Amino acid sequence: MIYNPIKVDLPLLKAAVAAGEKTAGWRETLWFETSKEDPGQKVTAEVLALDVDFDVIMIAGGDGTVRAVAEGVRGFDVPVGLIPRGTGNLLARNLKLTLDSVDRAVSTAFAGKDRSIDLGLVEVEREDATKEKFVFLVMAGLGLDAKMIANTDPDLKKKVGWIAYVDAIRKSLSGNNSINIRYNLDRQGNRTVKVHTVMIGNCGSLPGNILLLPDAAVDDGVFDIVALRPEGFFGWVQIWVKIVWENGVLRRSQAGRKLMGMTKEVRTLRYLQGKEFVMRLEGPEEFELDGDSFGKVVAVKATVEHLGLTVKVPAGKDVR
Asked: Where residue 37 sits, what CATH number does that domain have?
């Protein structure tokens, strides 16, 4: 068990794990905690260096902890079990795992079946020309989305959850938010576009039943990419109608999908799909991965590692 001590109720979690061990007939679980200095990569490396044949690595925390541990697990043939305890829990939401029961989440980790999902790999370039590599599981974002996350007060987020983003949105919308980007999708040639936000998704659903990327699947071997290009207030209204109404409501019924077929695509959103997406910016911009800020970048290269991570899901769930 690799857990974020800030996110979990440790006595409750240990009781659930002890019950799960007894029911499944497993040996005692080994426990490791993350820290502010190490969100998960180093402790995962320490775990995997032990002379122990692990059957599963459980991760208790939010999306940041899951991302960090997945980065450490990459390349090792060991499944992970998610115990969602964060604000968004986006990967767990997209896999339709339980969010409100530690007991059920632990039971799935012990007795669930394996589901392989894609990993997103990114290489970013900083303003000083240094480069860094990361893994992501849900989304990578650039522009207004990343500014919002960078402007979010962590203490307020801890107290009120997603409501904390409201104030961050207000701060992020001040000033000129348009970005000029030169991009290349699957090496088809360079193109330029002016956007407010670009999001590269391995998953499509956000909290609040918002379906940002309706065609995204965690195991299809491609990214779903959306560029938001609103022009004034009416442009934001078009985006809201498309994402919240069409994707979130109409798409979920046969009659609604027929209505969608009668509507026109809007210029304020542009959807793309591909396995490799490269962007270069005119200047440094905020960048985020799975809901955490990763500072400013001037270039990003994102590629898909198809079925690069194995996750435990309930035994009765269709893994496709």
From this structure: 3.40.50.10330
Flag whether 174 is in a domain.
yes
- What angle do helix axes 41-49 and 63-73 make, rounded to 10 degrees? 40
Could you tell me if 17 and 71 lie in one domain?
yes
- Tell me whether residue 176 is in a domain: yes
Rounded Cα gap, residues 169 and 154, in angstroms:
14
Question: What does the pLDDT look like over 71-96, one tens digit per residue?
Answer: 999 999 999 999 999 888 999 999 99
Shared domain for 14 and 154, answered yes or no, is: no
**Is the Cα dihedral 88, 93, 97, 99 positive or negative?**
positive
Do 83 and 147 fall within a single domain? no
pTM, rounded to two decimals: 0.85
Domain count, the chain: 2
